[in-house]
Automatic annotation (TrEMBL):
InterPro entries (UniProt xref): Homeodomain-like_sf, HTH_Psq
Subcellular location, record wording: Nucleus
Gene Ontology cellular component annotations, sorted alphabetically: nucleus
Lineage, uppermost ranks: Eukaryota, Metazoa, Ecdysozoa, Arthropoda, Hexapoda
UniProt-recorded Gene Ontology molecular function terms: DNA binding
Name of the protein in its database record: HTH psq-type domain-containing protein
Residue ranges constituting the HTH psq-type domain according to the UniProt record: 19-54
Signal peptide (from-to): none
Organism field: Rhodnius prolixus (Triatomid bug)
Length: 60
């Protein structure tokens, strides 16, 4: 029996964070006020994206 979709895919919800929040999170981590995990939780940004942007050492 073939599978059927029951509803919309959860993949449609991406980037529900604000760029200003990401810039503030990067600035806070670089100033060593918060760690990556704490900054991601405080500014409501993805931890993996924050870590990736910090590792590039570029201005966002």
């Amino acid at each position: 029996m073939p599978r059927t979709k029951l509803g919309p895919s959860p993949k449609g919800k991406r980037k529900n964070w604000d760029e200003k929040d990401m810039v503030d999170a990067i600035k806070t981590v670089r100033e060593r006020k918060l760690g990556i995990r704490e900054a991601a939780l405080h500014f409501r940004v993805p931890k993996s994206k924050l870590r990736r942007l910090l590792s590039k050492q570029t201005d966002f």
